[in-house]
Amino acid sequence: MTNLQPEPSGLMQDRFGRWVAARLSAGTAELPYETTERLRAARVQALAARKTVSLNTVPALFRSGSAATLAFGQGPSLWRRIAAAVPLVVLATGLVVINVVQNDRRATEVAEVDAALLTDDLPPQAYADPGFIQFLKTGVE
After folding, report:
1. Cβ-Cβ contacts under 8 Å for 59 (sequence gap 6 or more)
2. Domain range annotation of the chain
3. Rg for the chain (alpha carbons), in Å?
4. What letter does residue 7 receive in the DSSP assignment?
5. pTM of the entire structure?
């Protein structure tokens, strides 16, 4: 019986990388000497540039319980704490603004209905009468 479970993504990436490297290496035998020397120099430069990348600038993946987090550098910092708090402050401010705007709209709508009721020829008790509501639905004039 064959095992049909998927491979972890790291193994698939390694396999693909080896396959690409083998294909590229197979074609180097037919290249002229000058081209192979330029390729070798480019590889040396790329490796030197990769080694100069500071480990503090590369994000590290930390696992805490069932959650994974990205960390840039070591230890807590004031700027990291501020950067973590900014989205929460923006969210809270947005919720407060939405609440204020909705309350203003509701107050305006209620004021318009009250003004219409008070300036109408009918007394407000007429609107509460079930017969009047039926009268309005039938449209009898």
Report:
1. 70, 71, 72
2. 10-39, 77-141
3. 36
4. P
5. 0.37
